[in-house]
Design brief:
The chain is α/β, with parallel strands linked by helices. It has a single domain, classed as Spore Coat Polysaccharide Biosynthesis Protein SpsA, Chain A (Alpha-Beta Complex), CATH 3.90.550.10. It is 31% helix and 21% strand. The protein is built from 6 helices and 10 strands, in the order βββαβααβαββββαβα. The longest helix has 17 residues. Keywords: Nucleotidyltransferase, Transferase. InterPro entries: CMP-NeuNAc_synthase, Cytidylyl_trans, Nucleotide-diphossugar_trans, PseF. This is Pseudaminic acid cytidylyltransferase. Pfam families: CTP_transf_3 (PF02348). Its EC number is 2.7.7.81.
Length: 230
């Protein structure tokens, strides 16, 4: 059994109703549901939510919402792993136990079905517990600066002031789209950002974190430009 779980609680604060706010013509969560279904990787695509409106929209676009996420897993302090463990346990108690489970974020409009497929292949070929999407930083993180309380500037790593950018090690970050994992690893709450994981590389132009209204505007610009070239 291969299971997709899309966590989508109703209490987004910085962008109210973010999971179902329309992005490029459809509710945000629809992009994730459609990519999951189109990938052909899953026996079930579930949405884990505490919100009836989100549940109704998720079902309209083809996902299943067979349970209501409990309140203790629906506040803004709850991490992704306990939500995934809850869904995996539910599946085991109500059907065929899951073996491979993919967490897909509800706010990932750039997600592509072929990347989900690549993630599954990476999970199996690598022997890792997890395989998740990553992308590279556009600027060397070793040359990052901070703004002090006195409104002055200082480097995080001053020893790299004279180091050429091309001589610095490339750095990567979580692309915030999907996280394939073995069910046992999710249930054991094995750390995702660790030696137990392998990367699935994505180009920077298909990655945008959406946490603020400014992020949302930038993401729509990027999305339109990307689709114009597709």
């Amino acid at each position: 059994m291969r299971l997709a779980v899309i966590p989508a609680r109703g209490g987004s604060k910085r962008i109210p109703r973010k999971n179902i706010k329309h992005f490029a013509g459809k509710p945000m969560i629809a992009w994730s549901i459609e990519a999951a279904l189109q990938s052909g990787c899953f026996d079930r695509v579930l949405v884990s939510t505490d919100d009836k409106e989100i549940a109704d929209i998720a079902q309209f676009f083809g996902a299943e919402v067979p349970f209501v996420r409990p309140p203790e897993l629906s506040d803004d302090q709850t991490g992704t792993t306990p939500v995934m463990a809850h869904a995996i346990l539910w599946q085991g108690e109500n059907g065929v136990p899951a073996v491979d489970v993919c967490c897909i974020y509800a706010t990932a409009p750039f997600i592509q079905s072929q990347d989900i497929q690549s993630g599954l292949a990476q999970l199996h070929s690598s022997g890792a517990d997890y395989a998740f999407s990553v992308t590279s930083y556009a600027f060397p993180i070793q040359r990052a600066i901070r703004i002090t309380s006195e409104q002055r500037v200082e480097m995080f790593q001053p020893d790299h002031f004279h180091t050429r950018s091309q001589d610095l090690e490339e750095a990567w970050h979580d692309a915030g789209q999907f996280y394939w994992g073995k069910a046992a690893a999710w249930l054991a709450q094995t750390p995702v950002f660790s030696k137990y994981s392998c990367p699935v590389y994505l180009p920077r132009h298909r990655v945008q974190d959406i946490d603020t209204p400014e992020d949302w505007i930038r993401a729509e610009w990027m999305f339109r430009a990307w689709k114009a070239q597709s």
